[in-house]
Write a structure and sequence with these properties.
Mean pLDDT of chain B: 85
Oligomer: heterodimer
Radius of gyration of chain B: 19 Å
CATH topology of chain A: Helix Hairpins
Helix content of chain B: over 70%
Shape of chain A: elongated
Distance between the termini of chain B: 56 Å
Structural class of chain B: mainly alpha
Number of strands of chain A: 0
Low-confidence stretches of chain A: none
Strand content of chain A: under 5%
Strand content of chain B: under 5%
Largest sheet of chain B: none
Number of helices of chain B: 4
Largest interface: A-B, 55 and 55 residues
Number of helices of chain A: 3
Low-confidence stretches of chain B: none
Distance between the termini of chain A: 59 Å
Order of helices and strands of chain B: HHHH
C-alpha cells in the first residue's frame, strides 16, 4: 500500500505545482491590481501545500511550523494589500 | 521515496484525500486563470483554498498520527487559521474592487 501513497504524494505535488504555475500566469498577466493580489493569495496557499507535501514525503515535523508561518504572513500581506487598494493607506491615523 | 512504514488504514484514505485535494487545487487555479472578469475570478481559488487544503491537511493529520503512534492535531491550527482568514481577505479584496471600479468609471479620462 506504500506504493499507492507514494504515487498519491507525487501526483498531488505535480497538481499543486501546476496550480502554482497557473496562479503565477494570472499574477503576471492580471489586468487590474486586485487580480494580482488575488493571484498572490492563491499562490502562497499553493506554496504552503507544497511544503505540506514535502512533510508527507519525508515524515519530518518541522515543515508544519513553516507552513503555519506562511499562512500567517501570507494573510497579513493579502490583507495589507487589499486595505491599501481600498483606502490608499494600510494603517489609518 | 517514503522512508517510513505506513499501515494501510492510514495510507489508503490519505492517498485518496491527497489525489482529491490536488485535483481540487488545480481546478481552482485553472478557474482563476480562465474566468472572464474579476468577480467571477474570486470564486474558484476559494474552493482550492478551503476544500483542497482541508483534504491535504486531513491526509497529513492521518499520516503523522500513524507515524507518531498517537493522535497529532497540529494541522487543525492551519485549517482553522485558513478557514478564519479566507473570508476576511475575500471581503477586503471585493470591496477594494468595487471601490476601484466605481472610481475608474466616475473619472472623466477612462
Amino acid at each position: 500500500m506504500n506504493a499507492f501513497f507514494a504515487f498519491a504524494v507525487t501526483f498531488a505535488t505535480l497538481c499543486v505545482g501546476t496550480a502554482m504555475v497557473l496562479a503565477s500566469i494570472r499574477l503576471f498577466r492580471g489586468p487590474s491590481a486586485q487580480d494580482r493580489v488575488l493571484a498572490f493569495d492563491a499562490f502562497y496557499v499553493n506554496g504552503m501545500l507544497i511544503l505540506l507535501m514535502q512533510a508527507l514525503r519525508t515524515g519530518s515535523p518541522a515543515y508544519f511550523d513553516i507552513a503555519l508561518l506562511i499562512a500567517l504572513f501570507g494573510f497579513v500581506g493579502t490583507f495589507a494589500l487589499g486595505r491599501f487598494l481600498l483606502r490608499r493607506e494600510v494603517i489609518e491615523p | 521515496m517514503t522512508e517510513f512504514d505506513l499501515p494501510a488504514w492510514a495510507s489508503l484514505p490519505a492517498g485518496v484525500l491527497l489525489i482529491f485535494g490536488g485535483l481540487l487545487v488545480v481546478i481552482g487555479s485553472l478557474g482563476l486563470l480562465r474566468m472572464p472578469n474579476f468577480y467571477e475570478r474570486m470564486h474558484p481559488p476559494t474552493m482550492g483554498t478551503t476544500l483542497g487544503t482541508g483534504c491535504v491537511l486531513i491526509a497529513s493529520m492521518l499520516v503523522s498520527s500513524a507515524v507518531a503512534g498517537r493522535p497529532v492535531l497540529h494541522e487543525l491550527l492551519i485549517t482553522l487559521f485558513l478557514v478564519m482568514t479566507a473570508p476576511v481577505s475575500a471581503i477586503t479584496l471585493m470591496s477594494a474592487a468595487i471601490t476601484r471600479t466605481r472610481a475608474r468609471d466616475a473619472s472623466p479620462r477612462k
